[in-house]
Design brief:
The protein contains 12 helices and 10 strands. It is α/β, with parallel strands linked by helices and about 280 residues long. α3 runs parallel beside α5 and α6 packs parallel to α7. The longest helix has 20 residues.
């Protein structure tokens, strides 16, 4: 049993897809995990935008395809394969620059036998996407498809449009609140009561969903007050943008935006941060 790191502190996270894995990581570093998902991933009821993209790809021209997530990349090509022979999709992609936002879309492409034209470096925010494209070639006049995840990224879309790109969105799936909000509300009550000194944020959409629930219950300000006395760790710049937008503190970002490193480095710094915040 670990005797260092979190040393028995309760660690809250709203992770959904990797809930079991993050709970194990927290336990490995001496914490007591309180994992209550704030997200439920559901397919889009209407895949018309993705199917329209398939038409453009196979019969017209798509100069650039920006892939934002691994899951979305896989789902998009799985959908296209229900309408077109894989050989025709691959042939069409030969005229398309494939831009992968980090390692997960790269892995999804490789599983399909495809290679990215460009790989966006860490921390993989829209800023790195745009700077990578600026170094590659001007997007002015290019038809640029953006595979979206959860919600649109208006900053990325606007930056591409300002550079003269003919931009169209390809939404593949979206986030919804959990069907049963009871566990999430219980975790939020635990935080407000001051019984959980550590909060790990692993996805920007989690923050929006938590604020929705807090707003419905009239608990936004008590929650923000509680955050001032606990350690709030954000997995990286994209999540931190949402934290700042909602006026949450950010006490720590890991050296790399990886879940394992987030848990490890938070466990190493948690007590010094708590002492500093609590005076």
């Amino acid at each position: 049993m670990a005797t260092v790191g979190f040393n028995g502190l309760t660690v809250v996270t709203f992770e959904s897809r990797m809930a079991v894995e993050i709970a194990r990581l927290i336990e490995r570093h001496g914490g007591v995990p309180l994992v209550t998902p704030a997200l439920r991933e559901i397919p889009l009821d209407d895949n018309s935008a993705a199917l329209k993209f398939g038409v453009q790809l196979t019969t017209e021209r798509v100069d650039m395809l920006i892939l934002l997530t691994g899951v979305g990349t896989t789902a998009m090509f799985d959908l296209l394969k229900t309408r077109y022979p894989w050989s025709s999709i691959v042939a069409a992609l030969k005229q398309t620059a494939l831009v992968a936002r980090g390692p997960k879309p790269v892995a999804a492409l490789k599983a399909l036998g495809l290679q990215p034209t460009l790989t966006v470096p860490e921390p993989n925010t829209w800023i790195e996407v745009v700077s990578t494209l600026d170094e590659y070639r001007p997007v002015k006049g290019l038809r640029v498809a953006v595979q979206e995840y959860g919600a649109s990224n208006p900053d990325l879309l606007e930056a591409l449009k300002q550079r003269g790109g003919d931009v169209f969105q390809v939404p593949i799936y979206r986030w919804a609140l959990p069907k049963d909000l009871g566990p999430l509300r219980q975790s939020l009550s635990t935080i407000i009561a001051g019984k959980a000194p550590v909060l790990l944020i692993t996805n920007a959409a989690q923050v929006d969903h938590v604020m929705q629930v807090l707003g419905k219950d009239g608990n936004v300000e008590p929650f923000r007050a509680a955050l001032k006395k606990m350690v709030v760790a954000s997995i990286g710049p994209t999540a931190s943008e949402r934290l700042r937008h909602h006026e949450w503190p950010i006490d720590l970002e890991p050296s790399h935006p990886k879940m394992g490193i987030l848990v490890k480095e938070t466990s190493e710094q948690v007590y010094s941060i708590l002492i500093s915040k609590r005076g």
